[in-house]
Amino acid sequence: MSLPPVRYIVEPTDLAGHLFSVRCEIDAPSRDGQSLSLPAWIPGSYMIRDFARNIVSIEASADGRAVTLEKIDKHTWLAGQIGEGETLDLRYTVYAWDLSVRTAHLDQTHGFFNGTSLFLSVAGKETEPCLVDLRAPAHGAIGDWRVATALPEAEGMAGAAPRHGFGLYRAENYDALIDHPVEMGDFTLGGFEAGGVPHEIVLTGRHDCDMERLCADLARVCQWHIDLFGAPPPMDRYVFLTMVVGEGYGGLEHRASTALITRRADLPWRGMKDVPDGYHRFLGLCSHEYFHSWNVKRIKPLVFTPYDLTRESHTRLLWAFEGFTSYYDEVALVRSGTIDAEAYLKELAKVITQVTRGSGRLKQSVAESSFDAWSKFYRQDENAVNAIVSYYTKGSLIALALDLQLRLDSNGDKSLDDVMRALWRQYGELGVGVPEMGVFEVVAQIGGEALADWLRGAVEGTDDPDLGGRLEPFGVTLARDAATTPSLGVKLKPNGDVATLATVHDGSPARAAGLSAEDTLLAVDGLKVTRESLDAMLDRHVAGDTVAIHAFRRDELMRFAVTLGEGESTTKLELQATPSALARHLRMGWLGS
Ligand SMILES: [Zn+2]
User: Fold this and answer.
1) Measured in Å, how far apart are the chain's first and last C-alpha atoms?
2) Which of 203, 326, 399, 542 could pair with 188 as two cysteines, CB 3.0-4.6 Å apart?
3) What separation in Å is there between the alpha carbon of 480 and the centre of ligand 1?
4) How far apart are CA 225 and CA 233, in angstroms?
5) Among candidate residues 23, 5, 14, 145, the one with its CA nearest the CA of residue 85
6) Which residues on adjacent β-strands are paired with residue 184?
7) How remote is the CA of residue 547 from the centroid of ligand 1, in Å?
8) Ligand 1 midpoint to CA 292 (Å)
9) CA of 296 relative to ligand 1 center, distance in Å
10) pLDDT tens for residues 560-583?
11) Distance of alpha carbon 486 from alpha carbon 499, whole angstroms
12) Longest Cα pair distance anywhere in the chain, in angstroms?
């Protein structure tokens, strides 16, 4: 068997210094000088990150002779010409000390990387197969390291990695190469089957997880997703790569795996009863990334086929790819019987409350939020809540409204499931990108033109979708409770003793009085106030009272007279005690109970 023309060797050489050494060998490089680059962003996380900034040193050679390497922009190098038949040999080190699902991390306990951080893209050879030699650290590693990745082993080649071992792996092209993150370390490995396909869950970091419980729950959730789109699933194995930490949360989807970060306390423990909120959150994260295996990894915007990883890639459709996924991550939990309807409605009510509190939703549509994800949603500042809307949360509420409306219009015969399946058949399964109007067209096929027009208005406009009116026929009542504590209309920074303002809401009492984000509150009516005591102090007042607030702006003391507003309202969703037969029928289809 001949060697693929692009070969990488990855070695975790300096664990304490967090350095991966990478070698890239290229057969028959471009005759005019070979161009090499690292991506500026990683698919699924819509922000320019310039991964090349973590390349510490780089050199090129051929046949043992140095070859010139000129850096021509922030992430591109140009290698000088080499002789006919020679192999260009790049050697570089990459600094890996960012504990996120988007980049790379290396120390004595484990190594994790996304290909976008480590593998130089070889211009002109992006579609060629490549080979990856994953090497174990020579010294300094704690525990017995293994490898977890959905990257296929180089079966049939001398030196091919055994399952979970170091050695040779392969990728059909560069796009596949960077879509299989790699974890190496002394991890815990669990396994289960769903849709006839092996699934693994890998936990790195200290934990006391009840693996049996976790595998049983994930098997049920994954099976639900597979049944929704139709078996078999579009991958022949799947891996949940999970970093367990004290505090942290994150996930990034890939075609046959996902990289996750979770709190240790969110994992199930032996003897745990029911589904505590933390575990609910973790299962929701797994469910979200797994749904992405279809929605965004295969049913994907036309502009992502192929990805242009050198610059921002704009689409107005992230409400469909992230919002619909955020809707289905919870729906999968309730309809698979993993959580009950009450737990589902409690979580849904929280999302409605959160979306409704942000006045940014009145200024930006989810289509605009999608388009500007790169410069706004991913780069939020203290004014974000007043200026932008989340295509995740508001997108999930639009998905809910659409699902309920489809069910109402058809007496429960049709639903958003039919839309997802049609998107799968017409785009995902065929490997065809979804044009910017594609989702509306599919909704029109399933639910008619009028519903497609409504959807277009909902995603291009800023109105709140009517949820209460659509939930009522399903035997669910939406109500709003106003808090009794009068409000300043601010959000405090979450940590520390002092009450520092993270955000001041537009139209709030604090804004009217002149308070700003970053102001540190010192006293209310002459008495010292802390982050902990602020609500208790406000509780002794009623809306309409004016209080004197002393605060530092930078190091300058200022005084503000704040006329308190009504307490902020919270959304509540309740199952009606005696729903009609029709409501029971509709609710059974929607929530499965
Ligand atoms: Zn997502």
Assistant:
1) 56
2) 203
3) 29
4) 9
5) 5
6) 111, 147
7) 43
8) 7
9) 8
10) 999 999 998 999 999 999 999 999
11) 17
12) 84
Q: Tokens 């009517």 — which residue?
A: 466
Hunting for tokens 């009085």 — which residue is that? Answer: 513
Distance 325 CA to ligand 1 centre (A): 6
Residue-wise pLDDT tens digits, 21-54: 999 999 999 988 999 999 999 999 999 999 999 9
For residues 431 and 297, give the distance between their C-alpha atoms in angstroms, rounded to a whole number. 10
Tokens at residue 287, please? Answer: 């469910």
| Cα 291 to ligand 1 centre (Å) | 9
CA of 240 to the centre of ligand 1 (A): 14
Q: How far, in Å, is the centroid of ligand 1 from the Cα of 45?
A: 9
Residue 543 has pLDDT above 90, yes or no: yes
Torsion of CA 460, 434, 284, 210, to 10 degrees: -170
Task: Decide: helix, strand or coil at residue 290.
Answer: helix
Task: Report the separation in Å between the CA atom of 287 and the middle of ligand 1, taken as the mean of its atom positions.
Answer: 10
Q: What's the token pair of residue 90?
A: 């790049």
* 35 CA from centroid of ligand 1 (Å): 33
How is residue 394 written in tokens?
A: 């508001």
> Among residues 60, 51, 107, 104, which one has the least CA distance to residue 81?
60
Nearest to 313 by CA among 38, 42, 101, 104: 42
Distance from the alpha carbon of residue 264 to the mean position of ligand 1, in angstroms: 21
φ, ψ of residue 394 to 5 degrees: the values are -70, -35
Ligand 1 centroid, distance to 288 Cα (angstroms): 6
- For 322, the token pair is 């992230």
Distance, in Å, from the CA atom of 591 to the CA atom of 68, rounded to the nearest integer, reads: 63
In the reported structure, the alpha carbon of residue 57 is separated from the centroid of ligand 1 by a whole-number distance in angstroms of: 34
